[in-house]
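ok so i was messing around last nite and threw this chain in just to see what happens. nothing serious, just curious
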Amino acid sequence: MGQQVKQLAVSAALLGDNLLLPATAGVLYRVMAYTLVASAGLVVQWKNGAGGTALSGPMTLVTGIALAPPPNPKDTALIETTAGNALNLNLSVATQVSGHLTYVQETTP
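result:
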């Protein structure tokens, strides 16, 4: 198994699913940390693939207030996709959501 720690700037603005990390055969993503800030109030939800399974519950973002959960102990992921699925951020309304995330990209055997 190979893995690589990476960072990504988040910029999402479309109603519904916004692709952050692409679906790649044999690859899963483990999000270790993230920060999200919205330009207007909305509800966001992490999704496993396009129109896929929820990876989080719905989370309300308040205009200009960052959502930045603390990292889990012992390097446990906050969010994890299944192999071969994209990581999407679903928005309840079309408004700008910005931030960043730190993730591990792992190739499965």
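not much to say yet. The beta strands are 2-12, 16-21, 27-38, 42-48, 53-54, 59-61, 79-80, 87-91, 97-107.
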